[in-house]
Amino acid sequence: MDPVTIETDRLLLRAFTSADTDAVHEACQDEDIQFYTPVPVPYRRTDAEKLIGETLPTQWAEDKDCTLGAFRKDTGALVGSYCLTLLSRGVWELGYWAVKEQRGQGFSVEAARALCDWGWTALDVHRIEWWAMVGNTGSRAVAEKLGFTVEGTLRNRSVANDGKPHDWWVGGLLRV
Question: How many other CB atoms are found less than 10 A from the CB of residue 53?
Answer without folding.
Answer: 14
